Amino acid sequence: MEISEYGEFGLIEHLTANFPLKNKSSLYGVGDDCAVIENTPEEGKTVVTTDLLLEGIHFDLTYCPLRHLGYKACVVNFSDVYAMMGTPRQITVSLGISKRFKVEDLEEFYAGMKLACDIYGVDLVGGDTSASMTGLTISITCIGVAESPVYRNGAKPNDLICVSGDLGAAYMGLQLLEREKAMFYQEYNEWMREGKKGEQPQFQPKFEGKEYLLERQLKPEARKDIVQKLKEVGITPTSMMDVSDGLSSELLHICKQSKCGCRVYEERLPIDFQTASQAEEFNLNVTTCAMNGGEDYELLFTVPLAQNELIQQVSGIRLIGHMTDERLGAAMITRDGNSEISLKAQGWNAFKN
Amino acid sequence: MEISEYGEFGLIEHLTANFPLKNKSSLYGVGDDCAVIENTPEEGKTVVTTDLLLEGIHFDLTYCPLRHLGYKACVVNFSDVYAMMGTPRQITVSLGISKRFKVEDLEEFYAGMKLACDIYGVDLVGGDTSASMTGLTISITCIGVAESPVYRNGAKPNDLICVSGDLGAAYMGLQLLEREKAMFYQEYNEWMREGKKGEQPQFQPKFEGKEYLLERQLKPEARKDIVQKLKEVGITPTSMMDVSDGLSSELLHICKQSKCGCRVYEERLPIDFQTASQAEEFNLNVTTCAMNGGEDYELLFTVPLAQNELIQQVSGIRLIGHMTDERLGAAMITRDGNSEISLKAQGWNAFKN
Question: Is the Cβ of B233 closer than 8 Å to some Cβ of chain A?
Answer without folding.
Answer: no
